[in-house]
Design goal:
The chain is α/β, with parallel strands linked by helices. It has a 5-stranded parallel beta sheet with strand order 3-2-1-4-5, sandwiched between helices. Helix 3 packs across helix 5, helix 6 packs across helix 7 and helix 7 packs parallel to helix 8. The longest helix has about 30 residues. The chain is elongated and about 85 Å long.
């Protein structure tokens, strides 16, 4: 029986390893090329996943969460103009940093309410509920408010990219009380959600929202 040539065997193994590396590099290059060519729909899908907005409908009250004072206030006025509700409740206990620096003691709830009134919402329909320093705390406070006032349906307004997380928090808490929760997004005045990656504000917003989504999923 002929002896095996060690040199030939080592060369064959090296050749096999080189082929595997070349194939892996080719596959990685192809994957990168496909991702690059499809980057726009992929990036848009990453943003769209967060926007779980419901069709507009008549509700007992509209709950406008704290943050993005101008955008959410203007959207609240727009909802009123559509005739969807005659009661608006604004939440958010913290005082915005810029106002605090000026010695103005107005909570997010009060600021958003004011923005809504300035945009056309009748002041007698708007209530500032100075409660909540997080989405979870706002949900707890608003559930108590809804139950105290015998509500069956509410609309929750926040930034469009916040809606998936808002639904994750609000619906499990409100469902046992028999209260229907509709989600409504306020468009951002700082960037276009459809092309969020073209703006630093959009990049920051989306990155932060995915981190918060993971945090809420693990904690609650």
């Amino acid at each position: 029986m002929p002896a095996t040539d060690p040199t030939h065997s080592a060369g064959t193994k090296r050749h096999s390893r080189v082929l595997r590396v070349v194939r892996l590099l080719a596959a990685a290059t192809l994957a990168c090329l496909v991702c690059w060519l499809c980057r726009t729909p992929l990036l848009r899908a990453v943003g769209t996943f967060l926007i779980t907005e419901d069709a507009p409908a008549q509700v007992d009250a509209v709950f406008v969460l704290g943050g993005s004072v101008h955008d959410r206030g203007v959207e609240a006025a727009r909802i009123h103009q559509q005739g969807l509700s005659q009661r608006f409740v604004f939440t958010g206990a913290p005082v915005p940093g810029a106002l605090k620096a000026l010695g103005i003691d107005s909570s997010e709830a009060q600021c958003t309410r004011q923005a809504a009134v300035m945009a056309g919402l009748p002041p007698e329909l708007a209530t500032a509920l100075n409660a909540g320093t997080s989405t979870f705390e706002e949900a707890v406070a608003l559930l108590a408010f809804a139950q105290e006032n015998g509500m069956d349906s509410v609309m929750v307004v926040s930034n469009r990219f916040h809606l998936r997380r808002i639904g994750m928090v609000f619906r499990p808490k409100f469902a046992p009380a028999g209260i229907t929760v509709l989600l409504h997004g306020a468009p951002s005045s700082d960037f276009d959600e459809a092309v969020w990656w073209k703006s630093e504000d959009g990049l920051v917003m989306l990155n932060n929202e995915y981190l918060k989504l993971a945090y809420y999923w693990l904690k609650y």
